[in-house]
Design goal:
- About 30% of the residues lie in helices and about 20% in strands.
- The protein has about 300 residues and is of the alpha+beta class.
- The chain has 2 domains: about 1-95, Phosphorylase Kinase, domain 1 (2-Layer Sandwich), CATH 3.30.200; about 105-285, Transferase(Phosphotransferase), domain 1 (Orthogonal Bundle).
- Strand 1 and strand 2 (about 20-25) form a beta hairpin.
- It is an enzyme of class 2 (transferase).
- GO terms for molecular function: ATP binding; protein serine/threonine kinase activity.
């Protein structure tokens, strides 16, 4: 608690569905990020360890590195059947690396200009980290710019494994009745059927990729995923490239942007079987695999 000045609002650097994140300083002077899970009465001691078991052994340059954790269980008063009773309330904290540049979301929405070369570096890093997770049978299930932290060299680190799932060996998909995550980045088969697979992350990656590209363009962000996909399908053509800042992108970069838009569109295919794997995505990003033909998305209809 001393590390974060009793979790003061001044040290709060992020918030999510499972907890809040604070900047902290340990006794040896090391600056860290401390994620405090939202307290739960009738504390389920297994819940925090589910997250630990998913990511504690992960070691990759594009995955946030855990440094430790702590658990404090206290007794609080609660009303049960009209009477006050004692109940356990657990407070669980994760300690992890502190990223001074904050989240990718903050960078993309900030006033600092981020050139295409830097954006492409982040796109590649996210793809590498996600491919590594899938090799470990881990499905993140909440990939989005807010959960991608950026270090001092602008390298992305995937973080927040609060709703991540680990697939059993030899199992390609499972089902979950308790839907959790962020609606805008959620794959349709998970949203409507609870189907969990690595293709859910591929969908989230595609959405994140397209949003990263739009951040370098002189337009406002489309309000929903349907319009974003329709717009990106049309904007990828050379005739629409005047929307990019020509003074800041050479011809080869414009072609790279176009390719990334097409990869993003492949990743957000409604049919998960048509989406590439993250291994395919990396191969396409690195130019060692040809992109398959795109399927034209259903036209966006504004019903407002």
């Amino acid at each position: 608690m001393a590390a974060t000045e009793n979790f003061s609002d001044g040290n709060k650097i992020g918030s999510g569905g499972t907890g809040d994140v604070y900047k902290g300083v340990l006794q040896d002077g090391q600056v860290v990020a401390i994620k405090k899970l939202h307290p739960i009465r009738g504390f389920d001691h297994c819940r925090p360890y589910d997250e630990i078991n998913v990511f504690v052994d992960l070691k990759h340059k594009n995955i946030i590195r855990p440094l430790g954790y702590c658990l404090e269980v206290t007794m609080v008063l609660a009303i049960y059947n009209g009477k006050y009773v004692g109940a356990q309330q657990g407070e669980f904290c994760f300690v992890q690396e502190y990223m001074e540049n904050g989240s990718m979301e903050n960078i993309m929405n900030g006033s600092r200009f981020i050139g295409w070369s830097c954006r492409f570096k982040m796109i590649q890093g996210i793809a590498q980290g996600l491919h590594y997770l899938h090799e470990q049978r881990v499905v993140h299930m909440d990939l989005k710019p807010q959960n991608i932290l950026v270090d001092s060299d602008m390298n992305p680190r995937i973080s927040d494994f609060g709703v991540a799932k680990k697939l059993d060996l030899g199992v390609e998909k499972t089902f979950d009745s308790s839907i959790a995550g962020t609606m805008h980045y959620m794959a349709p088969e998970y949203m409507y059927k609870g189907c969990v697979s690595t293709k859910c992350d591929v969908y989230s990656f595609g959405n994140t990729l397209l949003g990263t590209i739009i951040g370098s363009m002189i337009i406002s962000t489309p309000p929903n995923i349907s319009e974003l996909i329709q717009w990106a399908f049309e904007a990828r053509d050379d005739v629409r490239m005047e929307l990019f800042k020509p003074s800041l992108c050479c011809k080869s970069q414009l072609m790279q942007i176009k390719k990334c838009m097409e990869i993003g569109l492949l990743c957000v295919e409604e049919d998960k079987e048509r989406r590439p794997t993250m291994a395919d995505v990396l191969a396409m990003l690195n130019g060692v695999k040809e992109l398959p033909a795109l399927k034209e998305p259903y036209p966006y209809i504004n019903t407002e």
